[in-house]
Amino acid sequence: MKKFKFSLQPVDKYKRTIEKLQMGELRRARASLRELEEHRDNLLRELEESGARRADELERGLPAEEFIAYDRYFRRLREQCEDLAPKILRAQREVTEREAALIRTKNELKAYAKLRDREFSEWRADVAAEEAQIIGEFVSFTVSAPEAPTAAAR
Fold first, then answer.
1. For residue 96, is it within any domain?
2. Backbone dihedral region for residue 61 (phi beyond 0: left; psi -120 to 50: alpha; all else: beta)
3. Distance separating alpha carbons of residues 23 and 116, to the nearest angstrom
4. Backbone angles phi, psi at 149, to 5 degrees
5. In Å, what is the CA distance from 82 to each residue of 39, 50, 59, 86?
6. DSSP E strands: which ranges in 10-151?
7. Based on the structure, what is the number of domains in the chain?
8. Is residue 142 part of a domain?
9. C-alpha to C-alpha distance for 62 and 50, rounded to whole angstroms
10. Beta carbons of 8 and 112 less than 8 angstroms apart
11. 65 within domain boundaries
12. What is the CA radius of gyration of the chain?
C-alpha cells in the first residue's frame, strides 16, 4: 500500500511560512500605528490641558513674555500634530496592505487545503480499490485451488 503524499506539499509549506512572516509584519505595522496614534493623543491631551492652564493664567494676568512663550509652545504642539497626520495615514495604509496580503495568503492556503482533501479522498478510493482487488484475488485463489488429497483417500 502506497503512502499518501500531497503533490503541492512544498508549495503549501512555503505559503505557511509566508503567512507567519506576514502575520509578524502586520503585528509590527499595527504596533507602529498604535504608537503614532498614542503620541498624537498625548499631544492633543497636552494641548487641551495647557490651553486650560493658559486660560486660568490669562484670567489672573499673564506677563507678555509668558504669553509669547505659551504661544510658541502651542504652535509647536499643533505643528507636531500636523506632522503626525501623514505618518498616521501612511501607517494606516500599511496596515491595510498587510491585512490584504495576509488575507490573500490565507485564501491560497484554503485552496491548498481543499486540493489536499480532494487528493486524499482520491488516494483513499485508490487504496480501497486496491485492497478490494487484493481481497478478490485472494478469495478467488482459495476457492479455485484444488483440494489437496487427504490421507484417508489414499
1. yes
2. left
3. 23
4. -65, 140
5. 12, 18, 29, 8
6. none
7. 1
8. no
9. 14
10. yes
11. yes
12. 37
Q: Which three cell numbers stand for residue 79?
A: 505643528
On whether the CB atoms of residues 63 and 26 are closer than 8 A, the answer is: no
- What are the cell numbers at 34? 498604535
Quickly tell me which residue has 509578524 as its cell: 24
Quote the domain boundaries for residue 65. Answer: 10-110
In the block, residue with C-alpha cell 503549501: 12
Find where cell 487641551 sits.
48
Residue with cell 498624537: 40
CB neighbourhood size of 141 (10 A): 9
98-104's contacts with Cβ under 8 Å and 24+ in sequence apart are 98/22, 98/25, 98/26, 98/29, 99/26, 101/22, 102/19, 102/22, 102/23, 102/26
| Residue 137 domain-assigned (yes or no) | no
Contact 4, 120 (CB under 8 A): yes
Per-chain mean pLDDT for the chain: 87
Angle 47-51-55 from CA coordinates, rounded to 5°: 175
Q: What is the largest CA-CA distance in the chain?
A: 136
- pTM (predicted TM-score): 0.70
pLDDT of residue 52: 79
Take residue 41 and report the three cell numbers written for it: 493623543
Cell of 94: 500599511
Identify the pLDDT of residue 51. Answer: 79
Q: Which residue has the cell 495576509?
A: 102
